[in-house]
Amino acid sequence: MNFIECHEEPIHIPGSIQSFGYLIGIDAELHTITFFSRNISDLFKIGNSEELFGRKLTDFPESFQGIIDSEIYTSLDKFTRRSNETYFDKIFINGKEYHFSVFRSKLYIFLEFEEVLINPNKRISNKYDNFYVIDNEKELWNHLLETLSKVVNYDRMMVYKFMMDGSGKVIAEKKNENMESFLGLHYPESDIPKQARDLYLKKRKRIFSNVYADTVPVLSKSPDHIDLTFSASRAMSPVHGQYLKNSGVASSFSVSIIIDDHLWGLVTCQNVEPKHIDLEDRVQAGIFTALAANAYSSFKSKSELNYRLALNERMSQLKTEFLKHNILFDSLIECKEEIRNLPEADGLAIVSEENVVTDGRTPDLESINRVVQWALGNTSERIFVSRSFLKDHGEELGLSENAAGIIIYFIEREKTEMLVWFRKEFDEHINWAGNPEKKVMVFSQNGEEKQMISPRTSFRIFTENIKGQSKRWNSRNISAVQAIRDLILETSHKNYNAIKRLNDELKKVNEELDSFSYTISHDLGTPLTVMKLNAQMLLGNLTDDSGKSKTKINTIIEEIDNMAEMMHDVLQLSRAKYSEIQLERLKTVYTIEKISENAKMTYGSPNSEIIIKECPDVLADKTLLHQVFLNIINNAVKYSSHKEVPKVEIEGTEDGQTIIYRISDNGIGIPEEEKHKMFKIFNRMDNAKKFKGNGVGLSIVHRIMKRIGGNVDYESNNEGTSFILTFKKPYI
Description:
The protein is built from 19 helices and 30 strands. By secondary structure, it is an alpha+beta fold. It is elongated, with a radius of gyration of 39 Å. Helix 14 (493-523) packs antiparallel against helix 16, helix 16 runs parallel beside helix 19 and helix 18 runs antiparallel to helix 19. The strands form seven sheets. The protein has a seven-stranded antiparallel sheet. The chain has a six-stranded antiparallel sheet with strand order 10-9-8-14-13-11. The chain has a five-stranded antiparallel sheet with strand order 16-15-19-18-17, with helices on both faces.
């Protein structure tokens, strides 16, 4: 008596089929009958089935005329050119309609038959096209189950997702009210062992109509077992049959969810009573499942693309910070918080020989040094990842809960330079669908008694408490670490000089551009003045009846004024970068009041209100400070002037070593999609084009605030905008 484990069970060669099906196998070259199911003689009224072996179907026209006349059989070589590709037809046998399926597998062509069943309850809506407008995983799989229920409608229908270790979890469910819910439950890998998962990848729709029905043997003269991998009526594994009985169901139907050519999960359906689904309905269920899988893959790809774009943006900003330092270790220390956050770690250790700098929640320095020594002696890869480091090595290294999960990136192993990310212990509770205990059972397969691990009989919820592990490092976390690795390689000392030289050249070009802007803005002032004077003189010489000419000349004068204003602003922008500055303690209240008074007269409406609250002193340059408040306050008054009750509020507050001014208005606001270009020169929002301006003012403010060691930011919505100016607090 042989003993085999579940994963060793040869489920692709059960030697029999289910009672709803009929099977004939013919030689792919000779078209002679090689094997058939025992019930063939009942369907085709054959007296002695032994006569079929080695003969062709055409030798028995009275029995097989329906097959012989079918389109598939008359063009058999064409339809079976590609292996494992099934073709469908319908034929009449003894006055009844049957599905007729044909495929070639290895040396044989399989001819399968099953009776056509009419499903009076089938209801198909056009909502299948909704799969592609859903961008939420839970909603998508629930929509799939809702759609499938119109076709197959089992007592319980579930979406089962495979985990990396082969175990699985029910992530969506639709069931009858009297059925117990399995939603959220986990199932061990042994419930669907590897060879079963391999079959689900090959044969993507499987039905077991009645687990209590007797199977039908496949008769063959061949000494080899017939591989029934792709047969729709392949008999179930006796272990799987017992598993279903133990779980209280008599019928099951499943469709594989394939994503990127991998078995991502299953739609698995269970019925308390025996139930058979017509072949067309099973095919339709497969189509709906493929649509849902494609939709899921599509929105996951979009999500991943958005993540990659955001990651690239963050890495670009990080690169800018890295290039400010000549020494890599200094760059890492300066950016340690961002480096920790990128892979969503709780803590970070930057290690360079004897030096260790930490950020966030980490073990103590002695523990970190033990981790470093362990890594040097026990790893060979450049990046080491573990979510169970505390569980696997905690006792030997004396680690705390802060080192449950770990990622190590070796910058330079020989110099003991590395980055170590830590995650704290995650108290995880997994609800399993029963305690997966193992028992031995005896069963018969192909006339031989065998011992096998019995499927479990318990499906009561069994909670497993997992200690010593962190939350799982996902693919995005690993991608972030790889991006940091690439950045370090790019900006390391070997490449630094070349990159710094390029940056110096770029800086020189920018300086030349700014100098050019200054020169152009300054030198164009004189010809513009001459043009305006000539236009005004021409306007004065016109007679009263030349109205059209006056309008045109007034337009010219207005455009000259606009150009002069733009040149003035560009000149101010250039001065903001290169003029000498003298930082001193400055009182702001008089400047703010004067600018506000002028702004109301120039840009405001009769009922504009400007509220000036506390105005603490700031550390700034007197001329540049005036430019900052002039641009911000003018904008606030101008862009709120079309409101029924325009309102601007100015207030300064102390915050530690900084002074923060908020200039708030109830104006037009800044559209979310345009916020990224707010401080770019000559940029104007679409909703601001009905107001006079040239898009330079905020660039001036941004440049000035950077020069005096401050910052400018803003908050905006449909109800207005608040600009936030951060100054250094003046010395006492």
